[in-house]
């Protein structure tokens, strides 16, 4: 089956190009152009009232698509951000112990590895890095506040095993288990229906969802990190009527919202 009819703009832009870089940025489908046009039209027509549409039906529809794709029981556990680094900062800020004891694999992506190494330098983090096959046994030994692993390792394409057993180690009091799904989302079938109450799952649309840059999301389990200290005012969208000086948080995944 050919899907070329969905990519007429990208294909016509360079008729001689043969694009095989599936690991990197996909060609954008025509729907991306239409979406940008619709966003510009909404901004022109609705002006400041565009937020009612963005935070209402657009937000909810995007959540619903992700909840369907990941078999999540509640779309409201999902929050959006321009990048997954924002979510990492907020999650770590919500762990009160210092240094934060982090267990991870030796195959994580540059962005996570760089930030962790810098935090190790400042004393913010104490990191243990192991082979993916050893992650579960090391985690079972205890003594960690955060267990972080990629669903699929970007360097090898290997699938991190035992996500369900890793999830069984998690609790609201720690450790927290964070799965980086960036190289797995829309590349492999991902069913979080039995894990959603225990793990964080973060990913984005830059890779296999073909959504382009700036479209990332987090699934946050209920009861974990109810008030992240690194926060933005959008996180209290549900509580704008609070008295002056009060710091409210949305009761759902939007508690991780920024801005």
Structural description of this entry:
With 259 residues, the protein is of the alpha/beta class. The chain has a domain at 56-225: Type I PLP-dependent aspartate aminotransferase-like (Major domain) (Aspartate Aminotransferase, domain 2, 3-Layer(aba) Sandwich), CATH 3.40.640. It is 30% helix and 14% strand. It is built from seven helices and seven strands, in the order H-H-H-E-H-E-H-E-H-E-H-E-E-E. The protein has a seven-stranded mixed beta sheet, sandwiched between helices. Strand 2, helix 5 (110-122) and strand 3 form a beta-alpha-beta unit. It starts with 7 loop residues before the first helix and ends in a 40-residue tail after the last strand. The mean pLDDT is 92.
Total count of helical runs of at least 4 residues: 7
- Radius of gyration, in angstroms, nearest whole number: 19 Å
* Termini separation: 42 Å
Shape: globular
Query: What fold name goes in the CATH topology slot of the domain at 56-225?
Result: Aspartate Aminotransferase, domain 2
Number of strands: 7
Largest sheet properties: 7 strands, mixed
Q: Tell me which oligomeric state these chains represent.
A: single chain
CATH class of the domain at 56-225: Alpha Beta
Q: What is the percentage of strand-forming residues? A: 5-15%
- What share of the residues lie within helices? 25-40%
Mean pLDDT: 92
Determine the structural class based on helices, strands and strand pairing.
alpha/beta
Order of helices and strands: HHHEHEHEHEHEEE
Strand adjacency order, main sheet: 1-7-6-5-4-2-3
How would you name the CATH homologous superfamily of the domain at 56-225? Type I PLP-dependent aspartate aminotransferase-like (Major domain)
Q: Return residue spans where pLDDT drops below 50 for at least 5 consecutive residues.
A: none
CATH architecture of the domain at 56-225: 3-Layer(aba) Sandwich
């Amino acid at each position: 089956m050919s899907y070329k009819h969905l990519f007429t703009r990208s294909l016509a832009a360079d008729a001689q190009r043969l694009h095989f870089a599936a690991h990197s940025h996909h060609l954008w489908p025509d729907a991306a152009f239409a979406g940008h046009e619709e966003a510009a039209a909404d901004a022109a027509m609705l002006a400041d009232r565009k937020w009612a549409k963005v935070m209402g039906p657009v937000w909810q529809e995007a959540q619903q698509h992700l909840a369907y794709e990941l078999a999540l029981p509640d779309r409201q556990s999902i929050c959006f951000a321009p990048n997954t680094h924002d979510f990492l900062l907020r999650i770590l800020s919500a762990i009160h112990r210092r240094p934060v004891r982090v267990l991870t694999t030796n195959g994580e992506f540059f962005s996570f590895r760089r930030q962790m190494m810098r935090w190790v330098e400042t004393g913010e983090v104490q990191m243990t890095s192991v082979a993916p096959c050893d992650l579960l046994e090391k985690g079972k030994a205890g003594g960690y506040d955060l267990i972080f692993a990629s669903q699929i390792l970007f360097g090898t394409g290997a699938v991190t095993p035992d996500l369900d057993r890793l999830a069984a180690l998690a609790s609201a009091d720690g450790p927290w288990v964070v799965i980086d799904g960036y190289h797995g989302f829309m590349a492999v079938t991902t069913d979080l229906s039995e894990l959603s109450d225990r793990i964080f799952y973060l990913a984005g649309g830059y890779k296999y969802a073909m959504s382009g840059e700036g479209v990332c999301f987090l699934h946050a389990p209920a009861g974990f990190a109810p008030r992240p200290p690194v926060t933005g005012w959008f996180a209290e969208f549900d509580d704008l009527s609070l008295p002056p000086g009060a710091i409210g948080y949305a009761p759902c995944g939007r508690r991780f919202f920024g801005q």
